[in-house]
Amino acid sequence: MTDGSESAAAADEQASIDPETLADRLRSGDELTVLDVRDRDEFERWHLEGEGVEAVQIPHMKFIQAQATGGVTDLVDDLEEPIVAVCGRGEASAHAVGLLRDAGIDASNLAGGMDAWADLSLARELEVDAPATVVQYDRPSSGCLAYAIYSDGEAAVIDPLRAFADRYVDDAADRGAEFRYAVDTHVHADHVSGVRALAERTDAEPVLPASTRDRGLAFDATSLSDGDELEIGSATLTAVATPGHTTESLSYRLGDVLFTGDTLFLEGVGRPDLERGDDGASEAARRLYETLNERLEGIPDETTIAPGHYSDAADPRENGTYTARLGSVRDRLAAFSMDEAAFVEYATSDLPPRPSNHERIVAANLGREDVDEETAFELELGPNNCAVAE
């Protein structure tokens, strides 16, 4: 027999879902209703989305009122089960879930709330032909991807997020590797870079594109241009100039892998308006067109594309990673079959809202504004919106 406390604990466990399990369900395309009990402005700023997800906002106060009147089921009459309830830290949503489950409704609570969801980072090794071990770090809350490269006891990270700097350090230590480089493909506008944080915690050299200095880089970093190389153990990382999303954008080649940053995604291309706004978007789109049709022309179709982001429209591989052969991306994306004028129109029209706080994030990543950990975390919450998706 079990006592009452054990039964309650079992019920609590059954009524909650951890962020990693939720990520698995979203990646599998499970249909579920996400019930967000935060206030409307918090919901509109950022809410949980995914294939098969219906997101609904009902403030927690309504559940408190319904508890007093006995009308909890009336609140969710139109919602499909199962329901996953969310709030900021998982407390208000836990109360709502308790009421729903008492009413016989299939509901569970996201443990830790949206804060825990934003803190989730998943690491998976890529199955690629490369002279090193490559690990993809996936932040499901925003679709941001970073990459660790390990070779002969040395390590580098491409496009690290500041929020997970300690995770990269700990993982490298577990593999007995020492950091050589922390590399950014470009000046990010959607998340705070971890390049300087890694340099502070390890012996890693911060590495950025050379023309980042033209954008006002305010800290010391190793500069790379087209064709420059970095040695990581016995592996060589080669810079490939791929401007368009930003003027300084570099991709990096490692064997048969091309880390494309925000230049090329599995389901779209980088938006051209984040650096110079609407006035400079057309010129940037023309540079991106040249990158796709001339600079990447000589790269074989068999090359594995490892992008800097993915969206809900992207399908992961069987092992959960987000990569694809360049040839399949070329065949799938209409952007590769357009003439220049059509591409410029496509890349500059009907764009989603720019990433929240993108100007402050750019300033932080250039070292022109100092932000503490809490502020950095708040600045980058929400979708990245860095792509022109098809």
UniProtKB/TrEMBL annotation:
Determine if Metal-binding is one of this entry's keywords: yes
GO terms (BP aspect): glutathione metabolic process; hydrogen sulfide metabolic process
Highest taxon, organism lineage: Archaea
Q: Which UniProt keywords apply?
A: Metal-binding
Kindly indicate whether the keyword Metal-binding belongs to this entry: yes
PROSITE patterns xrefs: RHODANESE_3
Outline the extent of the Rhodanese domain: 28-126
Where do the record's region annotations for Disordered lie? 1-23
> Would you tell me the protein name for this molecule?
Beta-lactamase domain protein
Organism per entry: Haloterrigena turkmenica (strain ATCC 51198 / DSM 5511 / JCM 9101 / NCIMB 13204 / VKM B-1734 / 4k) (Halococcus turkmenicus)
Organism phylogeny: Archaea, Methanobacteriati, Methanobacteriota, Stenosarchaea group, Halobacteria
